[in-house]
Amino acid sequence: MVYEAMLMFGVLFISGYLFSTLLQQRHALYLRHAMQDWLFLVIGIYFVWFWTHGGQTLAMKTWRIRLVTRGGQPVGVMRAVGRYLLSWLWIFPGLAVSWMIGAKTWMLVLIPSANVLLWALTAYLDPQRQFLHDRIAGTRIIRMPDTLAKGAANK
Predict the structure, then answer these.
(1) Got the DSSP string for the chain?
(2) Quick check: is 14 in a domain?
(3) 79 belongs to a structural domain
(4) In DSSP terms, which residues pair with 140 in a beta bridge?
(5) Residue 105: pLDDT above 70?
(6) Residue 141's beta-bridge partner residues?
(7) Could you tell me which residues come within 8 angstroms of residue 15 by beta carbon, excluding any fewer than 6 positions away?
(8) Is residue 62 part of a domain?
C-alpha cells in the first residue's frame, strides 16, 4: 500500500495541477469539493484501468501479485469498479464515525486507524485470507510465479 501510495502521489499531483490550472483555482477552498470528486474519479480510473488491463497496477507488478475473479479469470470493468468502491470501506466508516461524534485531535487519527485495523483483520475470517472487499466483489489477489527464480533453476 505504501508503494502504491507513492505512485499515486505523482498521478494525483499532476491531476490536481491540471484541475487547478484549467479551472483557475486561486486558493485551496475554491472548488474544494469539485477537486475532491475529480481526484476520487482519477484514482478510480487508475485502478479500474490497470485491473482490467492485465490485473496489475505498477506496484502489484513489483510485488508479483495480480487481481483475478474467484474463478481465476481477468476482471471486467463492472467488477473492478465495484471493488474500487468497496475498497473505500477501509477508510470511509472510520471517517464517518469521527465526523458523527465530532472527534478532535488524536481521535481523528485513532478512529480511522481502528477502522483500517479491523478491516485488515477481516482477512482472517476468509479461508483463503482474502480481504472482505475482495470477497464481496468476487475477486481475489493471487501471487504470480517467480519467473527469474525458475529461469535460474533451469540453467
Answers:
(1) -HHHHHHHHHHHHHHHHHHHHHTT--STTTTHHHHHHHHHHHHHHHHHHHHHTTS--HHHHHTTEEEEETTSPPPPHHHHHHHHHHHGGGTHHHHHHHHHHT--TTHHHHHHHHHHHHHHHGGGGSTT---HHHHHHTEEEEEPP-HHHHHHHH-
(2) yes
(3) yes
(4) 68
(5) yes
(6) 67
(7) 38, 39, 42
(8) yes
Q: Is the pLDDT of residue 67 over 60?
A: yes
Q: Distance between CA atoms of 94 and 110, rounded to whole angstroms? A: 9
First to last CA, the chain: 35
Q: What is the pLDDT of residues 81-104, one digit of tens each?
A: 999 999 999 999 999 999 999 988
Is position 152 within any domain?
no
Strands (E) in the chain, as ranges, are 65-69, 139-143
Q: pLDDT category, 74, cuts 50, 70, 90?
A: very high
Q: Structural domain of residue 136, as residue ranges? A: 2-145
